[in-house]
Each structure stands twice: as C-alpha cells, then as structure tokens.
Amino acid sequence: MVALDESRQHAVAALYADHHGWLHTWLCRKLGDSFTAADLAHDTFLRVLRRGLADAIQSPRAYLTVIAGGLVNDHWRRRALEQAWLDELAARPEMFEPSLEERAVILETLDQIARLIDGLPALAREAFLLSQLDGLTYPQIAERLAISVNRVQKAMTQAVKHCYRAMHG
C-alpha cells in the first residue's frame, strides 16, 4: 500500500466522501449493474490513491470520469473477449469442448491478459490488440488507426515494454 502523509490522506478521504456516491451513480447508468459499478468506483479511487495526486486535482468529477471511463471501456472489452470465447466454444463440436476446469483456466488467462494491458494508453492498447489478436501487420494497423507506421512502432514498443515490466516487475 502507498504510504501517505496526513494531508494526502485527508485529500483522498475528502475526494472519496464528496464524489463516491456521484461516481457510483454515474457508473450504474453506464453499466446497468450496481455491483460492477461499485467495483469500478473502488478501482477508480485506488488509481487516484496510487497516483498520489488527490490534493492537486482541479476538476474532481472530470478527473474521476476519465479514470472510470477507461475502466468501463476495459470492462466491456473484457466482457466482449469472454463472450467471444464462449461463442467460439459453443460453435465447436462437443468432443472438442474443453472441460469446466480448462474453461476456467482459459478465462482466467484471458482476464490476466486484459489486466496486463489495462494500464496502456488507448493507442498502444489498440495497436497491440490488432497486432496480437487480429494478426495485422504494422502497415495494416497504421491504415486501420489512421496513423503512421512509425507511430505504430512506437505504440508497440510501449506496449511490449509495459507487458514486460508487468510480468517481470
């Protein structure tokens, strides 16, 4: 856990007290699920806590909305990934269907991958997914994202470094 001095503790506590209810309501509207909204609200404040900037935030709701919005996008992406996997399983003949244990391992692995790339900026994450999941080349990614191949290379370098640091600390 991050060690905070008394003034930062007060800033985080005040931010939480002033905006948690609003953020939870905002997330409920986005997600349609109070439990997931509560989890993402919690994750939002954890990110604020880890960044240690609570006392310097000028527009708290805008700041929280940006963080929570990214978490919502990650949530839907993970859900879509899981659903795609389940759809793929449903389309397979029964004799090729993995056991419940294998399914659990696969879904856990997919969730770990999703968490691994959660911290990436949007462009790096998108380029990484297009490369690794869709098998697109850098020129194809550049065309799809309307950016230069050089920018794709930089985004991929950023993604690979991020993944390496996350896996090897």
From TrEMBL:
A molecular-function term among this protein's GO annotations: DNA binding
Transcription regulation among keywords: yes
One GO BP annotation of this record: DNA-templated transcription initiation
Domain of life according to the entry: Bacteria
Occurrences of domain RNA polymerase sigma factor 70 region 4 type (ranges): 111-163
UniProt keyword Transcription present: yes
The RNA polymerase sigma-70 region domain, residue ranges: 15-80
Pfam families in the record: Sigma70_r2, Sigma70_r4_2
Keyword terms, alphabetized: Sigma factor, Transcription, Transcription regulation
Gene3D superfamilies: 1.10.1740.10, Winged helix-like DNA-binding domain superfamily/Winged helix DNA-binding domain (1.10.10.10)
PANTHER family: RNA POLYMERASE ECF-TYPE SIGMA FACTO, RNA POLYMERASE SIGMA FACTOR FECI-RELATED
Membership in a protein family: Belongs to the sigma-70 factor family. ECF subfamily.
Annotated protein name in UniProt: Sigma-70 family RNA polymerase sigma factor
Highest classification ranks of the organism: Bacteria, Pseudomonadati, Pseudomonadota, Betaproteobacteria, Burkholderiales
